[in-house]
Amino acid sequence: MRTSSRIARLFIENILKMVLLLFAVSIIAFVLVNYSPVDPVQQYVIGVGGVSPEQRLQLEEYWGVNDPPVERYMNWLSALMHGDFGTSLLYRRPVIDIIGERFVNSFALMLCAWLFSGIIGFILGCVMGMKKDGIVDRMVKKICYILSSVPTFWLGLIFLLVFAVELKWFPLGFSTPIGMLDEDVTIWQRLHHLFLPALTLSLMSFANIALHTRQKLIDVLESEYVLFARARGESEFSILRRHGLRNIILPAITLQFASFAELFGGSVIAENVFSYPGLGSAVAAAGLNSDVPLLLGITLFSTLFVAVGNMIANTLYGVIDPQIREAED
Length: 329
Description:
Elements: H1 2-34, H2 40-48, H3 53-63, H4 69-81, H5 95-130, H6 135-149, H7 152-166, H8 187-203, H9 206-221, H10 224-231, H11 236-258, H12 260-273, H13 279-288, H14 292-320, H15 322-328
């Protein structure tokens, strides 16, 4: 019973923090856009064509461009509370519909990259920790440092040149074959288009998990109870399974869930390199084309996405870790 009430309390606290975070981000994003050189009316005029000065004044009055910033923010916030994110000036469609369509592709990309980075990073971290200061440890550690410093777009371009242009193993971009209807595309064709951007994104984020897991495992292996286990004749694999994994899995899980922000930021670049139709390419197009409703909508949605990931990490850590349970109880 106490565990259930503690989980409920953690969940409510995280929900309140997430609501406050979204409110703060909405204010900051609105202020930045308001004082930026972005002109949504001009962007709309460019898309529509010739507009008379009188029609432009009517558009400014309709959108409230000349209203006080506080009044415009309250009107925008009121529309958000009713589920109205506005209409995209670039795509001429409701923002919420564009976010829903693009998020499916971005979620598939980030989920694959998230799983790849977590599994690869954790396994390599365990290998480095067990082979501390060995040749494998030194080589993998150097690879992690190199990949952490390499720009995402550069690695993506290299993969395109090698695997798509030269070897022709993978397509040059997009999420589906060109010219095919969406309902005719098979799951294998989608995975074929997804592999290169997901691999690029995962290789840019697995290094932190690998290095963190390595250090945590080294600390565990140098502890007194592990030395005692070695003195009793336990094998290295048994020590890793019985003593190492239970002490390093929780920090790795927390770091993995906290990497949502890094993955989303990297996906913006990866999607543009591979012409992948996700939220990343949509936010880049919105910024370049002064699409304020879409830009603000994706900003809030990405904040919600990252906050949910952190909330899951905090809840799991509080539920699973026995030391935190004892401290709170």
